[in-house]
Design goal:
Blueprint lengths: L2 H9 L4 E9 L4 E8 L16 E3 L4 E9 L2 E8 L2 E4 L3 E4 L13 H13 L2 H8 L3 H18 L8 E10 L3 E8 L4 E7 L3 H11 L1 H4 L4 E4 L3 H10 L4 E4 L1 H28 L17 H10 L2 H5 L7 H13 L1 H16 L4 H16 L4 H12 L1 H10 L4 H16 L6 H12 L11
Parallel strand pairs: 2-5, 8-11, 11-12
Antiparallel strand pairs: 1-2, 3-6, 4-5, 6-7, 8-9, 9-10
Helix pairs in contact: 2-4, 4-17, 5-7, 8-9, 8-12, 8-14, 11-12, 12-13, 13-14, 13-15, 16-17
């Protein structure tokens, strides 16, 4: 093997002429002087088209390459500009690095792989770069991956949801593919215009191929989906529907607790220490204290209650009929999602009738929302579809958000999420 071939393999470069390699003792780095081959030279750095020479640019420049053992490696080459017919004067493309990048392609690929597999400190320490630089590299790598593949091809059943990624009401809209079980799109924002960006990217023809769309019932999502995918079955997420009932139940519990606290304020105060045997009872204080610990007894499914929580629930049933009735309404709505589709429709209508007559304002208001989303709730039961996948994806994005703290832009966060969850994980250089 010739020295030039060996050095190209060690440096991880192709279509490149290695003119010379030397070790700079003062800086402690290995410097390789390189240039593109004749066929790879004189191309625009943006589009890759052959273009005439323009000027020498800013002279020679360096690119960081993968270390050789413990020694940092840099590539050095001329960086003239060419006159592209589309982009004008542009720095010449080089085969070993992306346009406007300060690192080689193999360096970028290794950093991207490490970012999806390792901790923040491990990546920065091993590669000797700042975490913000990692964000820029990930953005470049994902841009290349996105240009090579069609991530929106073959979409039929999708889920749409939003997730907060930063304080100050900063949100990402997220779309997943239920069939491939992967993240296919994410963008900053939480408006109908943001959802519209996804369908604009999808195109009218592919929008017509969407058969099912699951969402959390947000009006701004429903409006756009109805307009852009009129033939798709719109599905209400069972988890969010039951959460609505749980929130209504918690509102009733807080009302009962506040009433007990108001009664306790009117009761005579006791001194510190053990109360006297003839001290008057304080039913309001005792009731408020008991209700404060009843939250999980009301929230959890009956089969998951501990013995103490079962006792607490039995106490609520015997002492507060209104709160217990609210609990039964929540449980009845939850059970409907376990029924066959034929029985679920009748059961849901009975639940709506019961909630309408229950004289509990929170559930009277809730039944109006259930009536509004009735068709989508039954569609979720019929097609056995939920937002469980997208909720799982959101949980992973929250973890990625913590890892990505310090990135300069939200685009870097989206790039890391797409590389990790979009089915296009980076591969280490030299691996297949």
């Amino acid at each position: 093997m010739q020295n030039a071939t060996l050095w190209r393999a060690l440096l991880g470069v192709e279509k490149t002429v290695v003119e010379g390699v030397e070790y700079e003792e003062d800086e402690g780095v290995l410097l390789a002087r390189v240039r593109p081959t004749r066929r790879a030279s004189s191309r625009c750095g943006r589009c890759g088209r052959r273009s005439p020479w323009y000027d020498r640019g800013e002279g020679r420049r360096r690119w960081r390459a993968l270390d050789l053992g413990t020694i940092p490696v840099w590539l050095e080459a001329d960086a003239p500009r060419v006159n592209c017919g589309e982009h004008g004067p542009t720095v010449r493309a080089v085969p070993w690095a992306r346009h406007a990048a300060g690192h080689t392609r193999v360096f970028d690929e290794q950093v991207a792989w490490l970012a999806t597999q390792c901790s923040k400190s491990a990546v920065t320490e091993l590669m000797r770069i700042a975490w913000r630089t990692v964000g820029a590299i990930i953005t470049r790598v994902w841009a290349d991956v996105d240009a090579r593949c069609d991530r929106l091809a073959g979409l039929r059943r999708i889920g749409i949801d939003e997730i907060s990624y930063k304080k100050g009401h900063k949100y990402l809209m997220v779309v997943v593919d239920h069939d491939a079980r992967r993240l296919v799109w994410a963008a900053p924002g939480r408006t109908s215009a943001t959802v519209g960006e996804f369908f604009d990217l999808l195109g009218e023809g592919r929008c017509a191929q969407i058969t099912h769309v699951s969402a959390d019932g947000a009006d701004f999502i429903e409006t756009i989906v109805a307009a852009r995918c009129p033939n798709a079955v719109r599905v209400a997420d069972p988890f969010h529907v039951v959460k609505w009932a749980t929130d209504a139940l918690d509102e009733v519990r807080r009302e009962a607790w506040n009433d007990a606290r108001a009664l306790a304020r009117k009761e005579p105060k006791r001194r510190r220490g053990r109360p006297r045997a003839d001290a008057p009872p304080r039913p309001g204080s005792e009731r408020a204290k008991a209700l404060k610990g009843a939250r999980y007894s009301l929230w959890k499914n009956p089969e998951n209650l501990s013995e103490n929580q079962q006792v607490k629930l039995a106490w609520i049933a015997s002492t507060d009929p209104k709160l217990y009735r609210a609990y039964l309404l929540k449980e009845a709505l939850r059970v409907i999602f376990t029924m066959p589709h034929d029985a679920a429709g009748e059961a849901l209508d009975r639940w709506i009738s019961w909630a309408r007559r229950c004289r509990i304002p929170a559930f009277v208001k809730l039944q109006k929302g259930i009536v509004k989303h009735r068709a989508r709730i039954l569609a979720a039961i019929e097609h056995n579809l939920s937002n469980g996948l997208i909720e799982s994806t959101n949980t992973k994005i929250r973890l990625i958000t913590r890892i990505a703290f310090g990135f300069k832009s939200v685009e870097a966060l989206i790039a890391l999420a797409m590389l990790s969850l979009g089915g296009h994980r980076p591969v280490l250089p030299g691996r297949k």
